[in-house]
Amino acid sequence: MEDYSGDLPKTELVRKKIRSTILFTLALVAAALLIGSLFRLGPTPPDTGILTYVGDFPSDHIWFNTSEPLSVYNQLSQHVLVLFFCELSALSDLQYLSRLEELDEHYSDLPLAVIVILVSSETDVSELTTTVETWGVDFPIIIDSSELVSQRFRVSAYPAVLVLDSKATVSTRFYTGWEEADLQGIVGDLFNQGTAMRNLSATPFEPDGGTYFPEPDPSGF
User: Fold this and answer.
1) What is the distance between the alpha carbons of residues 106 and 183, in angstroms, rounded to a whole number?
2) What pairs with residue 169 in β-bridges?
3) What are phi and psi of 6, to 5 degrees?
């Protein structure tokens, strides 16, 4: 095939080459966008549970040491949260609670809230009250009788400790070994981040020491 490009004016030849390059580039971009959209139609990658937003506490569960059901996004908004999931069935739970008490005392002037999630099939109020009093827990406690709370926070084994930053994002999740971790340092770093981003509550949450028993469902279900 003969090449007639030499017969074209030089400027016209340059324009044709530029136009061809632009059209080729646009075609590549369109193809990339199409392929990307096809991949996005696939299943959502599984959630690792770290650095992710979580659900909230159910409003129809029994609470101790607070006279109202608490919410991560209401009373506890803009707080650093430490959630302790346990069954209160071993002496190690008592050691964990002691460590959390030290943590709470160390940051008593800052918006830190420690919440205990007691995983128990027991629903009798008197039995639960005896358990809470026997263990001497002063933190707000929600009774997770159906493991709904565990599901909402993606906890699959006990004991477990979750640390949430002031934007209700899970920053740390422990199932084992957390007693050896620098929990105080982890919480301190989250306070530094919250201060820098101005995401901390000006008023630290204070539990009122009451109890909350949800009204029974009149339908019987």
Assistant:
1) 11
2) 53
3) -70, -20
Report how far apart, in Å, the C-alpha atoms of 149 and of each of 61, 80, 88, 144 are.
9, 18, 16, 6
**Could you report the average pLDDT of every consecutive run of 10 residues in the chain (221 residues)?**
51 60 58 46 37 82 97 96 95 92 96 98 94 95 96 94 95 85 94 95 94 76 44
Closest CA to 80 of 56, 53, 113: 113
DSSP state, residue 17: H
What pTM was estimated for this model as a whole?
0.75
Residue 174's H or E segment, with its range, is strand 170-174
In this structure, the number of other CB atoms found within 10 A of the CB of residue 182 comes to 9
* Model pLDDT, residue 173: 92
Sheet of 141-144: strand order equals 170-174, 160-164, 80-86, 112-119, 141-144, 63-64, 211-212
User: Going along 9-111, which residue ranges are E strands?
Assistant: 63-64, 80-86
* Cβ pair 50, 164 in contact under 8 A: no
Q: Is the distance from CB of 200 to CB of 194 less than 8 angstroms? A: yes
